[in-house]
Structures are given as structure tokens and as C-alpha cells.
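Take a protein:
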Amino acid sequence: MSRLVLRQLAAGHGRAPVFQGLDLEVADGEFIVLLGPSGCGKSTLLHAIAGLVEVRQGQVLIGGHDMTDADPAERGIGMVFQSYALYPTMTVAGNIGFALRVAGLPAAEVAQRVQRVARLLQLEPLLQRKPAQLSGGQRQRVAIGRALVREPALFLFDEPLSNLDAQLRTELRRELKLLHRQLGSTMVYVTHDQVEAMTLATRLVVMHEGRIQQVGTPAEVYGRPANRFVASFVGSPGMAFEAGTLRVGPQGQVSFVSSRLQLLLDPATLDHPPRDGQAVHLGLRADQVRLHPDGPYEAAVQLVEPLGGQAVVWLDLGGCLLAALWSEPVLPAPDQRLRFTIHAAGASVFDAATGQRC
């Protein structure tokens, strides 16, 4: 069992803790991704789990055992860093099996485990090569193999793909997802890359300024963000916002009203009872702004971002910028006026004062 539980955790490098009072539970076999901007505390949290930074208060439980004060070597973890940190004079086989040899395992068992890991990571033809003879993607697979060969209870990944080019990132992302499916191991992965987070995670942990903002599946976090920060940070392009007020009708109808938009909302999208006259921000994603020649709204095209088979069209609605998706082969021109409608069922509403989801 490799269930991870963090209770009221506080940790940091300097005088002030990077985070405190943090609670999180990771089930056995989950692939959890810690997502957030630089400086939000996600790497510090990972290092606290690994025992690489001091835990000032709280507990770290791995597999039901209190590892808060345990040495990193005693925690049963395998960690992969952003830097490959391979021994340049050792072969691939030597790098992968180094920790096992240091631990005093018999040579035959070391060779067997190295071979098994190399087969799993498609490194068998490269076992006798030195790191200088490998590509960046191959070096990162060796670093993963070095963690994997120890057969840890818990895998920790600290932005392992950030040094790779776009194509290698895509390939290794796919390989990591397949590896998780094959092993069924518990994995905690740190990144600021939304695509990595959305494609890899069974659950996302979105962090900001040392606090957990939301925990949920990628679909939950994308579709029902807990606050404006999560709404703006998760998703590409980010969510657009329009300030306005809620109006509650005599039959319970809920409408959003601003100087530019009037929209009847689906009450099912609200987490709390609406208040008539409540100041809010309406949040709209690109797939909720639908271009249609008979739409009730009209706006000028400010910018077009081609993405291959699709494009993002930015519409200037009197100072409110909305993103819409375009799939036609001929792209609209800047300043061209387009009509659109809004799919209210997927809209998000946030309290103007607190930023929390209404």
C-alpha cells in the first residue's frame, strides 16, 4: 500500500513557511498532479513529502506509517528531478542499478531488475551507452528507470519534462501515462504546464500562494472551478470574465446582467443560492462562446490564433475580450464583425468580493 496522507503540514526553506495547515489525501494507485504558477509552493510540498525540506508541523504518512521525521532513504520513495543528474562515466545500466549496488544487493539480482526496467522503458538497446551518447528524452527515461528499479511505494516527479522540447515532452508524457497504467503505483507529479496536468492526472491539486485552491478530476477543475484563480489558470485559452449582477425572478429564474450581456443562467451551475442584486463575475470559456450568424451578440475580431485544425478567435465586446473557437478553413480578418451566442449551461459565476464560485 502506498496511500499518502498529509495532515496540517507546514514547511519552508527560510524563516516564514512556504505553506502551512495543508491537508491532502492521495489514494493508493492515484496519479496526482500538483499544478500552479512558479513560487506557489508545489515543489516545496513535494520535497517535504520526500524529506528534503524540514517539516515544521504536521504529519507525512506513507502507506499508513508516519514518515514525518524519517530519513529520505527510509521513506520508500523514488524521485525524478528536473535535472537528469546522471553519472557521466557510468553506462545506462550502471546508472540505473547504482542505488541497488550501494544497498548491497547481489549482482545477479541487480542485473535482473535493471533488465526488467530497461525493457519497460524501451532502454534495452542503450544499456551499454554513456549519458553523453543519449538524447534528452533517453536521459530522462534513464532517470525514471533509476527511480523505478528501487521498486518504491511512491513515485515523486519534480517537473521532469521541463528541459525537453515540445515533441519529446509529448512522447514522454504518453510513456508516463502508460507506465502508470502498467504499474498501478501511486505517483505525485509537479508541473506548471496545464497540458501535462490535464492529460496525466487522475486528480489535480491546484495551488496558489502556498494554499490548495481546488482538488478534483481534470474535468471537474476545468468545468466547475472553485474560484477565479483556478478559472483563469486552468484552461487554454483562459476563462474570460465580465462584471455584472445577478437578478432572481419571482419564479426562481436567475439571470446575469451587465452593460454588455444579458444571460439566463442554469441554476444547476450555481453552488449556492443566488441573491438578487449580488455583484458577480461571469466566467466564459472558449467553447461556451459559439459563433453563429443569427446570434444575439456581435463583436469585432481583435486577434486570430491559428492552432492547426482549429483557431482561437478573440472578440472585443466593447472592452470585454472573449475567446471563441473557429474550425472553418478560411480565417476571419481582424476587425471583422461576427455574431455569436453564449451557451449558458456551462457558464461559471464568481462572487465579486471573494472570488469564490457562487
Notes: The chain has two domains: 4-232, 237-351. The longest strand covers residues 297-306. The chain has a mean pLDDT of 92.
